[in-house]
Specification:
mainly alpha; 3 domains; two-stranded antiparallel sheet; 12 helices; 2 strands; elongated
Length: 323
C-alpha cells in the first residue's frame, strides 16, 4: 500500500461513516488534481520526497477529516458573541454580589478588613469558576441545537437602540440587579441580618405588619427585579419597562402608606437594658423609621411621576408616528 492510500485511509477514519466513501473520493480527486498539476509543471513524476511534501501541504488527516464534521468547536462563532455577553453580565453580577457581601462583612458582622477581603476574594473566585462552567455548558448545549440559528434569523433591524438613548452603564445595572436579588433572598429568608447590634442588651423584632404584607412585598420586589433586568438587557422594550416602573412605584407608595399607618414597625426587646432605656430606644427607632418611610415615599412618588411622564411621551411618539 503506497503512501497516498495510507493517507486517505487515515482521513477516512475521522469522517462520518455514512459519507466516508463519497468524501474520500472527492478528496482523492482534489489531491490527484494537485499532483497532476505539479507533475505537469515539472514535466516528470513526483519523487517520494515531493509526494510527501504535497501530502503535508494537503493537511493533517485529523484536520482534513475534521472539516467535514458537524461541530468543530465547543461554542461556534455565531453563538460566541452571545456567550461572551452573557458571561460578562454574569461576572458583573457575581462581582457586585461579592462587593455587597464584603461591605456587609465589615459593616455588619464587624470582621477585620483582611479577613473579610480574603473571604470575599475566595467566594468570588469559587462563584466565578462554578457559574462560568455552568454558563459554558449551557451554551455548548445550545450550540448543538437549532436555537442559535432561530434566534439570529429572528433578529430585526428595528431592535437596534435609538441614537442618544440613555442606558445605565454595566456596573450601575449590575449593582441594581444584584441589590434587588440580595433583597429578594433576604426577604424569602435565605439569610438574615443581625438583630442585636453590637450586643448592646437588646434585640429587634419585626412588627406584625411585615408578616401581613409578606406576599405583596415579595411581588413588589420581583416586579422591580423584572424592571431592572428589562432596563439592562432589553432597553428596546420601552413600553414594558415604563409600565413596570410605574406599577412598582404605585405599589411601593401604597405599601409604604399602609406600613406608615400600621404603628410599631420594629419592636425593641430588652435583653439587659432597663425598661426606660428600652422605651427611649423604641421612640427613637419609631421616629427614624417613619422619617425613612416618608423620604422613601417621596422618592417613589418622584419615580412614579417620571415613569408617568415617559409613558405620556411614549404615547405621543406613537400617535405622531401613526399620524
Amino acid at each position: 500500500m503506497d503512501l497516498v492510500d495510507r493517507y486517505f485511509m487515515a482521513i477516512r477514519r475521522g469522517l462520518p461513516a455514512a459519507k466516508a466513501d463519497d468524501l474520500v473520493a472527492e478528496l482523492r480527486d482534489d489531491f490527484c488534481s494537485r499532483q497532476e498539476d505539479r507533475e505537469a509543471k515539472l514535466g516528470r513524476t513526483l519523487s517520494s520526497d515531493e509526494q510527501r511534501d504535497l501530502i503535508r501541504a494537503f493537511g493533517h488527516p485529523a484536520v482534513v477529516a475534521g472539516r467535514y464534521r458537524k461541530h468543530q468547536w465547543l461554542i461556534g462563532p455565531d453563538v460566541f458573541p452571545f456567550y461572551l455577553g452573557t458571561m460578562r453580565i454574569v461576572m458583573l453580577v457575581i462581582a457586585a454580589v461579592a462587593i455587597v457581601a464584603f461591605g456587609a462583612s465589615v459593616a455588619i458582622e464587624q470582621q477585620s478588613l483582611p479577613k473579610a477581603l480574603a473571604q470575599a476574594v475566595g467566594n468570588l473566585a469559587s462563584a466565578a469558576l462554578t457559574v462560568g462552567a455552568i454558563v459554558t455548558l449551557i451554551f455548548a448545549i445550545l450550540e448543538r441545537t437549532t436555537f442559535p440559528k432561530k434566534h439570529v434569523d429572528a433578529w430585526q433591524p428595528s431592535h437596534l437602540p435609538d441614537l442618544g438613548e440613555e442606558r445605565p452603564g454595566p456596573w450601575k445595572s449590575a449593582i441594581e440587579v444584584t441589590l434587588t436579588i440580595v433583597l429578594l433572598l433576604w426577604w424569602i429568608g435565605l439569610f438574615a441580618l443581625p438583630v442585636s447590634p453590637g450586643g448592646a442588651g437588646f434585640r429587634l423584632e419585626p412588627g406584625p405588619i411585615w408578616h401581613q404584607l409578606y406576599v405583596p412585598i415579595l411581588l413588589l420586589i420581583v416586579g422591580r427585579l423584572t424592571h431592572n433586568l428589562v432596563q439592562w438587557l432589553r432597553p428596546r422594550w420601552k413600553s414594558l419597562r415604563i409600565v413596570l416602573g410605574a406599577a412598582t412605584a404605585v405599589g411601593a407608595i401604597i405599601l409604604l402608606a399602609i406600613i406608615y399607618r400600621s404603628g410599631e414597625l420594629v419592636t425593641v426587646v430588652s435583653t439587659g437594658v432597663a425598661q426606660a432605656q428600652r422605651a427611649s430606644l423604641q421612640d427613637s427607632l419609631d421616629l427614624a423609621l417613619r422619617l425613612a418611610l416618608f423620604v422613601i415615599g417621596v422618592i417613589w412618588g418622584l419615580n412614579f411621576l417620571t415613569e408617568l411622564w415617559r409613558l405620556a411621551r411614549r404615547a405621543r411618539e406613537k400617535f405622531a408616528t401613526v399620524a
